[in-house]
Model the fold of this input.
Amino acid sequence: MGRLFVVSLEGKIYCCKHCGTHLALWEDIVSKSFHCRHGKAYLFNKVANVTAGEKEERMMMTGLHTVADIFCVRCGSIVGWKYETAHEKSQKYKEGKSVLERFKISGPDGSNYWTSHEAYVGGSDADDV
Done:
């Protein structure tokens, strides 16, 4: 399989909640108003230490998008998805950006996000940006 190389980030870091691998920096957040099956999710300009799955078309709250699930390189947990293509002109700003699900990551202060019984259930996408 080869040797696993993991990038260490510096600053306010979001990590995989399962293994602690660094995934993104607080300063790279574009929006905190995204939602997924487990509740809140954040849109990031860039993420680290992830691998992408196969691209697929998904109908989301804001229209049709080509996305790929992203996985932690160390433990293999799905941590979110990456926008490859947005088919709506108003959604083009998402292309090349990644969403990390708060349920799957720990915050810069070490906090974990736990879903409540009222957590959003449905298609994954943003309400407002």
In short: Residues 114-124 have pLDDT under 50 and may be disordered. Residues 13-112 form a domain with the Metal Binding Protein, Guanine Nucleotide Exchange Factor; Chain A fold (CATH 2.170.150.20). The chain has one domain: 13-112. The two ends are 40 Å apart (CA to CA).
